[in-house]
Write a structure and sequence with these properties.
This protein is mostly beta strands and about 120 residues long. The chain has no helices and eleven strands. The chain is about 0% helix and about 50% strand. Strands 2, 4, 5, 6, 9, 10 and 11 form a seven-stranded mixed β-sheet that branches.
Length: about 120
């Protein structure tokens, strides 16, 4: 099992920045990749960004490309999401996730955090 705990959400004005963190514990050696997803009210959960844990491979949704940056601290088993130039449409609950198997970074995640709320005011 892998436990994931997100932090760093909050309320920010449009154009502002936030940095989300996700602390991983447990059987962390079994990760292939970690990612961020989000779910806005009344909408399905969507992919935001992902990173392969021991390689430099990253992938972003088109809607956040150029504004968000995913990174990791291997020694601290922590995943980050730097969010700049935030827009009201970025408002959502953001979830950290981890997957064990190789393959697409968009799906098949095995472990999920509890989520952290990000609200962007106009």
């Amino acid at each position: 099992q892998v436990q994931l705990v997100e932090s760093g959400g909050g309320l920010v004005q449009a154009g502002g920045s936030l940095r989300l963190s996700c602390a991983a514990s447990g059987r962390t050696f079994s990760r292939f990749a970690m990612g961020w997803f989000r779910q806005a009210p009344g909408k399905e959960r969507e992919f935001v960004a992902a990173i392969v844990w021991f390689l430099p491979n990253t992938h972003y949704a088109d809607s956040v490309k150029g504004r968000f940056t995913i990174s990791r601290d291997n020694a601290k088993n922590t995943l980050f999401l730097q969010m700049d130039s935030l827009k009201p449409e970025d408002t959502a609950v953001y979830y950290c996730a981890a997957k064990r198997s190789a393959g697409s970074l968009l799906r098949d995640y095995d472990y999920w955090g509890q989520g952290t709320q990000v609200t962007v005011s106009s």
